[in-house]
Specification:
about 120 residues, alpha+beta, 60s Ribosomal Protein L30, Chain: A
């Protein structure tokens, strides 16, 4: 098992247990934790943060098998569908899409993931 620990947070951005990688929620914020405005830009920022987290344990988007989107506006679903089609090749990962009342740092999107990545 391996994990990458952040000095800013008490949890691992990503945690590898054998060939399985668990990615903590990645927010639609920039690198300074400021919320990214706009619908598509916010979705892309969350994926960018998730990609950075995957990289901390040697994984990438091609390894993702399950994604969960948490959004403060359920009408983002269509944009999320288009993004999903754009960033994931067939067969695409399983996905859950949930509306939540609020997210940290004023973000509008948070994405977590599970990946399969032989170490």
């Amino acid at each position: 098992m391996s994990a990458s620990v952040s000095p800013d947070h008490p949890y691992s951005p990503a945690f590898r247990a054998g060939d399985t990688v668990y990615v903590s929620g990645a927010l639609s914020v920039d690198r300074d934790y400021r919320p990214v405005p706009g619908r598509d830009d916010a979705l892309d920022a969350a994926v960018e943060r998730m990609t950075e987290r995957l990289a901390t344990v040697g994984a990438d988007l091609r390894d993702v098998v399950k994604v969960t989107y948490y959004v403060t506006d359920v009408t983002l679903r269509e944009e999320a569908n288009r993004q999903f089609e754009r960033i994931f090749a067939q067969p695409r990962p399983a996905r859950t899409f949930l509306a939540v009342s609020a997210l940290p740092y004023g973000a509008t999107v948070e994405i977590d993931a599970i990946a399969h990545s032989p170490g």
